[in-house]
Amino acid sequence: MSASEPVELPEWERLRVLRAEAEFSSVKKDRRAAYTIWVFLGIFGGHRFYLGDTGRSVAMLFTLGGLGVWTLIDGLFVARRVTAVNRQRRAAIMARYNILDMP
């Protein structure tokens, strides 16, 4: 068997992976939702609250998004932040299930 051939998992292992994937699906964040929140509530840090950045969200709330400057800059990085949050959440879930997650 070569290294490129897929390996058949035992049934219990396959179910564990499916359970972990289902848990990740329930907590992952959506880019479109983050951008929609940014458009309507960005100046109040709504997109940051959605992504779990509570400290920065509160700072944006009290400064009105850095008088709008911080909000505009955040618009360039929302997709990157969603990807980072999803990557961290997936890694935490896979570690909890003792699954080696390959990129």
From TrEMBL:
Keyword Glycoprotein found: yes
UniProt entry keywords in alphabetical sequence: Glycoprotein, Membrane, Signal, Transmembrane, Transmembrane helix
Transmembrane segment boundaries: 33-51, 57-79
UniProt-listed InterPro entries: TM2 (IPR007829), TM2D1-3-like (IPR050932)
GO cellular component, one term: membrane
The TM2 domain, residue ranges: 28-75
Subcellular location per the Swiss-Prot or TrEMBL entry: Membrane
Membrane topology summary: Multi-pass membrane protein
Name of the protein this chain belongs to: TM2 domain-containing protein
Organism: Paractinoplanes toevensis
Phylogenetic placement of the source organism: Bacteria, Bacillati, Actinomycetota, Actinomycetes, Micromonosporales
